Amino acid sequence: MSRSITQTLTCPCGKVFTSQVYDYVNVAQEPQLRYIVLAGLINVSTCPTCGRRAALARPFIYSDPAHKLLIYVHPRSDAPQEARLLILEKLRSVYTDVIATQEQQNDEEHKCSKGGRSVTLTPSQAREMPPLQVVFGLDQLTELVNAALSPDERLGRLAMSTQSRSEAERGQFLDIARKLASEMGCNYEVEDLSDEYTVWIYGSRRNIGALMRELTPQG
Ligand SMILES: [Zn+2]
To answer: What distance in angstroms lies between residue 55's CA and the mean position of ligand 1's atoms?
Structure first.
């Protein structure tokens, strides 16, 4: 499973709110997280009152076994060279430990669980774990992820907007958009301007394409 903590933040506008901060993103279990990453919104908090965004500079691991990706993402794209080398050195030893632990756990599993279902990796699977890559900043991560994805798995977006200034109508509009997004396995994001209210729905191009077809009147 992915791993995150809930962090309490105070916006410059005074609003106190909570935001999820991930240190382990597993897209095999939560495919939608891939698109939050590609939209540049992972570990980014949005103030529910004023909409101000803030990047929560926290390193995380991005794991996508189906595409053989295991990536350590350092939040700063401007980290100096010495810091980079130090991080790489540290990670190399952690990674070796992880594989060693997994092999050990599997040995124990074989001894004590006869006929039970094993969910841990076998030693050969552990050896087949993708090599750990290290990137600095979300842009580098996006490049690696996009290179591994087929075109219809890449990020697609769709904007739905209304010019209504009524809070109630905007609320209803959001409800509909939110429902559509969740039915199609997509995420959404709100852009709330005084003269226009836009809900961005984003997810894989495949799902966004299906959603567009659904919204197009038939006949
Ligand atoms: Zn705010």
So the answer is: 14
